[in-house]
């Protein structure tokens, strides 16, 4: 994952200091691009341990069209918890519950989860129901029927509903490209990228999506191209990334998907595994909400 370390180094050296919505402060660079060749291994960062379980559950959650964190919480994936909790704190039902108490209620009380666990019309909703259009199902059908089309695009950025979302989509649009020799590539446009916490997750997430779509469409996954608008390092993540820059990347792992003749809409967490993932120790950092 030299590409990721090159991105980190470039932003630290050439980025500008900027204030931001969270009042944390960032070093930011606008318009970056990295390319990952999946034929060389699955691009999961090795200079720190990355939560692969969360990556798998989140992408399956997106594909299902779900927007409530209960599925994630029930599977001990807590990457989305802070946003509905901040909304809950402004509601009349809020009784000074801690974040952990809020999550316990999401897990154990279905009515509470239904009322307070939904993120609004975020990714899954837009993928599967963008103003009545099932973009993801159409995408799969179009790749199979007209692979060389230049219209294999899904947008999560819906101006009509963006103000109803707990967090407007950071990874906002992606496009597939099928080559004459049966390879398939995926380019993601990410309007905003948290380089330390979010981007390693996003690289692996969309690489997994590329692998899943390739299997469904009987193609071979090749390049994941990651284009970021505002690529930023939060001021409270600088030391963590400087530590990563001192670490030597390890060999990339191998992704295994056992489809059991299932469609992409039927794949479960248990069908996806990672082999040979070795990483340096975990590095923690606070989420800016």
3D architecture notes:
With 289 residues, this protein is an alpha+beta fold. It has 2 domains: 1-67 and 121-275, Thymidylate synthase/dCMP hydroxymethylase domain (Thymidylate Synthase, Chain A); 68-118, no CATH class. Helices cover 34% and strands 21% of the residues. The chain contains 10 helices and 8 strands. It has helices at residues 2-14, 52-64, 70-74, 82-88, 99-108, 110-116, 123-128, 135-145, 198-216, 238-245, and strands spanning 16-18, 26-37, 153-155, 171-178, 183-194, 220-234, 254-257, 272-275. The strands form 2 sheets. Strands 1-2-6-5-4-3 form a 6-stranded mixed β-sheet. It is globular, with a radius of gyration of 19 Å.
Write the layout of secondary structure elements.
Blueprint: H1 2-14, E1 16-18, E2 26-37, H2 52-64, H3 70-74, H4 82-88, H5 99-108, H6 110-116, H7 123-128, H8 135-145, E3 153-155, E4 171-178, E5 183-194, H9 198-216, E6 220-234, H10 238-245, E7 254-257, E8 272-275
Parallel strand pairs: 5-6
Antiparallel strand pairs: 1-2, 2-6, 3-4, 4-5, 7-8
GO molecular function, one term: thymidylate synthase activity
EC number: 2.1.1.45
Subcellular location: Cytoplasm
């Amino acid at each position: 994952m030299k590409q990721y370390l090159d991105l980190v180094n470039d932003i630290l050296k050439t980025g500008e200091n900027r204030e931001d919505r969270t009042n944390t402060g960032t070093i930011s660079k606008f318009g970056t691009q990295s390319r990952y060749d999946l034929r060389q291994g699955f691009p999961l960062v090795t200079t720190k341990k990355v939560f692969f379980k969360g990556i798998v559950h989140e992408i399956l959650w997106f594909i299902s069209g779900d927007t409530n964190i209960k599925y994630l919480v029930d599977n001990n994936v807590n990457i989305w918890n802070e946003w509905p909790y901040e909304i809950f704190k402004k509601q009349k039902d809020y009784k000074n519950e801690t974040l952990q108490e809020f999550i316990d209620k999401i897990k154990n009380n279905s009515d509470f989860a239904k009322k307070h666990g939904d993120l609004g019309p975020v990714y899954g909703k837009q993928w599967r129901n963008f103003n009545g259009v099932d973009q993801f199902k159409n995408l799969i059908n179009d790749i199979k029927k007209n692979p060389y089309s230049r219209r294999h695009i899904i947008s999560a950025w819906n101006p009509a509903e963006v103000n109803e979302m707990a967090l407007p989509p950071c990874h906002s649009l992606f496009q597939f490209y099928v080559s004459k020799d049966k390879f398939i590539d995926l380019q993601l446009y990410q309007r905003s990228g948290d380089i330390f916490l979010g981007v390693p997750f996003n690289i692996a997430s969309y690489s997994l999506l590329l692998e899943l779509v390739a299997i469904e469409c009987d193609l071979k996954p090749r390049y994941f191209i990651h284009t970021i608008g505002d690529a930023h390092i939060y001021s409270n993540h600088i030391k963590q990334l400087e530590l990563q820059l001192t670490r030597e990347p390890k060999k990339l792992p191998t992704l295994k998907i056992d489809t059991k003749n299932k469609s992409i809409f039927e794949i479960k967490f248990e069908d996806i595994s990672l082999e040979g993932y070795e990483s340096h120790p975990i590095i923690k950092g606070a989420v800016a909400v």
